Amino acid sequence: MTAASHLLLLFYCTDVTPKDQPRPFPDGFMFGVSTAAYQIEGAWNEDGKGASIWDTLTHMDPSPIKDHSTGDVAVDSYHLYKHDIEIMKELGVHFYRFSISWPRILPDGFIHNINEAGLKYYDNLIDEIVRAGITPFVTIYHWDLPEVLQRLGGWANPHIVNWFADYAKIVYDRYANKVPYWITINEPKQICYEGYGSDAKAPMLNLSGIAEYLCAKNVLLAHAKAYRLYDDKYRKVHNGSVGISISCSWYEPATDTNEQDIQAAQDARQFDWGLYAHPIFSYNGDFPHEVKKNIYHKSAEQGFPKSRLPRLSAEDVSNIKGSSDFFGMNSYTTKLIYRDASLEGMYPTPSYMDDISAVFVKDPTWPQAKSSWLQSVPWGFYKLIKEVSKLYDRPPIFITENGWSSGLGLLDEERINYFKRYMNAMLNAIDEGCQVKAYSVWSLMDNFEWMNGYTEKFGLYEVNFGTLERYPRKSAYFYKEVIRTNSLDLYYEPENLTEAGHSARSRTTADDDNELI
Ligand code: NOJ
């Protein structure tokens, strides 16, 4: 089948049916906003912070970042955090998910050198969040590995399991009394595949087909060790919840009759998120069958004496299995998949893409965000939540990230549409018994979007990168209303404001009165 004829099949008209009444969220449903240290803090070398792999990468010459920017200053939340908490208060969020920078706490990665100023910064941040009546939700690792540890192999070195647990212990010791929700590690696939198996993220190793799987095993073991540590030492006293955030896309067969496409979509889902979710949430606690099978066969064909996917021993399985109090799901989009003979030679060998052996296509009719990978496909979000619930026996699900990228501009109708359609899809899944307990927007404000620098804006608040002032977008008003009413009104339109009027009225700075409306 040609790509063109596939595209004809791609128009998928099923969509969630809009209901005309506001749809309530369950009682106690939690709404939040998410950020990550490197993307917002700045202060890259202040108060004793060490270098991370993102400092190294962004300082490379020539820079691989699209606009040649860095997170050196980012949106300066290191200094403006009080202001950021003010705008969260305006939104009315229940929780704030932010990450702790490992090299700010341990400049050399190891615990022989603990940076008290770094710990103090997060003390102040957390105290201020709590004072604002917001619940702190901490990600222990969101991609900013201390550079020293990278030189030792980073996530490909099995010793990192202990390095990470040592770091987690410091963080728990200091903050467990104030932080009820924890994510150990954000998005293992992006760490491993994008950073080790390709060059889409730091440290850009591009050791495809091998490094991403070594990394996957170590990430799972590190996560499990940090989870068990909380269980053993902190849970009794502090009674918090610990999980992991896994990036999950939905993969839909491009045709629903072709067995190969159906299998390809199933494989793609298992490679994308099953690889990390299955060992933690499934009954057998191992890597998914599809992943093991494909890599085993490909490895044999390629002359490897054994599978490139490392084995999980019985001890590994018993550590990893069940090591999460909830399923942290970061989800944005859907892709269509097909598999046929035209694939021959399409991907390098060995590689993760060749191990999946499928073609990923976009449906041009789906609304397209500024980020090339992101399209609005609410029914895919619905199917994803249903599938995860079915596969893993209805775990509590926290949507730890969902969001839309745009260019500059405060009147972000497209983002509002995206949120309406995705929240509606999520409510459909909840109505059908899925245990979604929380939802968090990526992101509170525009920030450093990794390889795309500041060219893609995900914020409910727009940031003027000259002055660092934050301005609420129309979607901020929309989200505030969702939270205030604990319901989704598909017809709710925030006030009809002009771009200029909107900006003048809602200008917020650290010194202003921060009333949003
Ligand atoms: C997932 C990542 O966790 C976050 O860092 C990133 O900015 C968003 N997706 C948007 O790409």
CATH fold assignment: TIM Barrel
Give helix % range: 40-55%
Major sheet: order of its strands? 2-3-4-5-6-8-11-12
Largest sheet: 8 strands, parallel, barrel
Describe this structure in words.
With 517 residues, the protein is α/β, with parallel strands linked by helices. The chain has one domain: Alpha-Beta Barrel (TIM Barrel), CATH 3.20.20. Helices cover 41% and strands 13% of the residues. The protein is built from 19 helices and 15 strands. The chain has helices spanning 3-9, 37-40, 53-58, 77-91, 102-105, 116-131, 147-151, 160-175, 188-197, 211-233, 235-238, 259-281, 289-301, 314-320, 352-356, 378-391, 413-431, 474-485, 499-506, and strands at 23-24, 30-34, 95-99, 135-141, 181-186, 241-247, 250-253, 327-330, 334-338, 359-361, 397-402, 436-442, 461-463, 470-472, 487-488. It has an eight-stranded parallel β-barrel with strand order 2-3-4-5-6-8-11-12, surrounded by five helices. A three-stranded mixed β-sheet has the order 7-9-10, with helices on both faces. β13 (461-463) and β14 (470-472) form a beta hairpin. The longest helix is centred in the middle third of the chain and has 23 residues, at 211-233. It is globular. It starts with a helix and ends in an 11-residue tail after the last helix. The model is unreliable at 1-17 and 501-517 (pLDDT under 50). The site of 1-deoxynojirimycin has 9 residues, from loops. 1-deoxynojirimycin binds next to loops.
